């Protein structure tokens, strides 16, 4: 959108005012033009309703140089009938791309149509930039007003007009030199040399790529797989920018290699002139102005392997470049090979829970894993595994006998054993009694002795960063019982890692349990009930932590199975957690139910007692109220005599006395 303003002449005899806007048709197409002058328009005056009384003239003729276009010749005052000439027309062309300029006449008489100060009018011209215009291209628009005489207005650029619009040199006031940089703002590198009043310039901008790169941790050892994350997108200060394509080129540090399949979308992998791997992703239709660091859908995660010969302290820098619309931005991240390291030792047991015994024997296998995280390789590792015994400081609790059935280790390993009392053995390979790391003392004998109380494995082999060594110890616990706890501990050293390493693991013996449920029927007085329902269904329930859930299908209890059932081979632990069991019964009408759970050893005994409910006592039926017999009336009443009156009074008094007596009796009762 371009906007040009004009004020109508105030002198009655002066020519009409005009304003003209010339388009940069090399890079834009005309869309619309209107004259606005409403001070109350929202969001501003430029978006107001058009002033219909002021008609637009469209120019579809030839424009050799829009920078020098004069918008016409001479305009005659108030003679609008002669305006349509020299390529100008009031008729809006069907093909808007042919419009090269627009202008409007504003007469003094039309000043009242404006509510703006000084009766200002604006010519608003909307234009659409061509699709093939590139980012950074210059787009111009030119505004002209004619010199104004008493009767006529001329468009030619005389000296005053040229100076006002900065279209001339001051040395030669009659010549316009389009290549001369006037006192306006210099615009090097574009098609026209300067801007100024009536000469507006905009540059085409796109959205800029943004990119950030992270690594999961700052240090990785030789041969490690580093986890990288690339976040990218587009940003622009202009709203509603179109989606565009972003190309990501990530250059790995020398010696690093991409882990195939580690990215959700596989990159194109190439090498640069220095032999470094370059990972390339092309992502289309990227939406601009999405926060790169928060909830960004444009994220790439991948792994790259560190060189196995990387030296301690070496720094590896990875650089990523995001490109879009001719612009690029970059980010980098560094990882360092640690100068110091460690060797880890971990121990685990094949079966944390042994629930099956063979002739009273609980067989299990211990595994000891050593992993080097030291950038300087070791050449010797030494591990002592003191076998568990009842009541040891590790928490073992068993009454049977633990024996070693075999030890396996890697290439370069030698197995030793001792039969010394387990509680007297120092677990540190570097303890004086044990000799020193890699050199066992005389208390250690090669091979696995019968009744061995500790095992020692010395491995003499290169142990570089990232490598692992594995030792397996097969054991049997004889005379095992449910509830036995066996905790095994191992301590190791490597010649380059000075600190000793310790690990432990345990297993428990938990044989399957049984649950027997018994149904008891009682009458309302608590006596055995013989008249019972035919059958009732019960459900086995298991409790694990706070979770209670049914196990298996419901079971029928009836007289046929003596109202009894036993659930067998129930695991004492589930997913490494202890569990307990109980019974839930389907509701039996007219009976109350009570469940009693008793644990006998490792097994459960459940008694479900059903007691008949008392029949409710019916309310008594009231006696019917008799219908009173009416007193017969004499056919004709006789007059009372004095004696009769006295007798009646006596009777009445007696009746009153009886009534009082009745009331008093009722109250006492």
TrEMBL record:
Coiled-coil residues: none
Stretches with biased composition (Pro residues): 617-632
Region annotation (Disordered) ranges: 610-640
Entry annotated with the keyword Lipoprotein: no
Transmembrane segments: 646-666
Keyword match Transmembrane helix: yes
Keywords: Cell wall, Membrane, Peptidoglycan-anchor, Secreted, Signal, Transmembrane, Transmembrane helix
A Pfam family reported for this protein in Swiss-Prot or TrEMBL: Cna_B
All copies of domain Gram-positive cocci surface proteins LPxTG, residue ranges: 638-669
Signal sequence extent: none
Gene3D superfamilies: 2.60.40.740, Collagen-binding surface protein Cna, B-type domain
Protein name: Cna B-type domain-containing protein
Species: Trueperella bernardiae
Lineage: Bacteria, Bacillati, Actinomycetota, Actinomycetes, Actinomycetales
